Amino acid sequence: MPPEPLIELDNVDVVHENAPDDTVVSGVHWRIHAGEVWVVGGDLGSGKSTLLTTAAGLARAGAGAVRIFGREMGVATESEQVDWRQQIGMVYEGTGRLLSHLNVMQNVALPLLYHTETDIGEAETIVCDALDQAELMPYAHWLPGRLNARIQQRVAFVRAMMLPKRVLILDNVLGSLTPVAARWWLSRVQQAQSRAIAAGNPIAVVASTGDMRGWLDVGTHFAMVRDRRFQVLNGRDEARREGADVWMQPDRTGAS
Amino acid sequence: MIGFLAVALGLVIIGQTVALLTKVGAQDYIGTVMITVLVRELGPLLTAVVVLARSGTSSVIELGTARALGEVESLESLGIDPVHYLVVPRVIGLGLSVFCLSTYLVLVALVSGFVFAFLQDVPITLSHYVSQLADALRWQDFLLLAIKTGLFGAVIAIVNCYHGLARPLRIDQVSEVTTQAVVECLVACVLVDAVFLVGYIFV
Description:
The complex is a heterodimer.
Chain A: E1 7-16, E2 19-32, E3 37-42, H1 48-55, E4 63-68, E5 71-72, H2 78-87, E6 88-91, H3 104-115, H4 120-133, H5 149-160, E7 167-171, H6 179-198, E8 204-209, E9 221-226, E10 229-232, H7 235-246
Chain B: H1 2-23, H2 30-68, H3 71-77, H4 82-119, H5 126-136, H6 139-165, H7 174-202
Helix pairs in contact in B: 1-2, 1-4, 2-4, 2-5, 2-6, 2-7, 4-6, 6-7
């Protein structure tokens, strides 16, 4: 019997948050299992971020069924949704959406202090350790506004990993990073995977990107969002071709 | 800010009222006038307006900006209820602060009013002034002051949180919702005040 998917989208129409009638991606069939690393490619504005938000259970689907950890989103109670969210780590595109009135340490400590009985002293030790491992300790007392977007996104990753996760969603974290900066993310994802496997609970990772090439070595499954459709690619070779094709295609975003 | 306003209120309004009442021989009504003007009406309302100007506006800007930058969705993604994390502390905090600051304003205004009257050589002794105030005060005044000021704070917080959080915002809409929130807070506070006015009639 095949393992139950952690996240399952069954004929889902992904709709724009502010305009429920505006379907961004339609008819999505997608199953995400533990241990998989999904890389979702697509042009700027193709709907990758909205698709990821819907898959994370943070946005309602226009049609179809979204099942998270085996439970359908439409019938899940508020407490079940809160429980899911603690198990799904989300790192948003751009600045990672840190809380601007809290410093780096407070941002990272927030989920720990809110959801667990950890006292402040213990939380400080855990957070310092996590920041140190992520090479972010020098920024511990900085407000997010003082940090550049790349560092803010790294802090958002550390914050997302403060509680044990079953799914990690990374929205275009490689962006326009240099290969050296991209390596930070790839090594962190691999570390998170290794730790989870060692603990006996492999996590699923979903990463969106405009350029698949950065994820080719880490990804195990690949998909594209284009022309409002979600298309699963046939392995790494097709993803490599898609990644190469991006550089050959005319600009469809309207940017010069 | 509240201290300055309280002293000004005491000097300009209370001191003059005391002087005027004494001139027309109505000094026995000083306590009643003080309690009606300060404790029941002007003190709570003025404090609410100051708190709205000082903290309410910054609160709606902070929340609106957080909404526009996606920080609220970020909280939700961490499994943190934005109402529990952002709204509840504001409602409790503003309710308590309007109550405490109103009490402070009333006390300082009463003292500064007497000081002004004393400087104007109004023939009233401190003990007479205090006994008049004590006679005019009833236990219902303390209770209604607490409820009214708590409600002012809660109303300011709820209206601000509603405008800052209830719908998706763009960053350029923050100034617009701030203006709306301030106007609606003022109207809401005046309406609450009017309801209490009716209540005072029956006390």
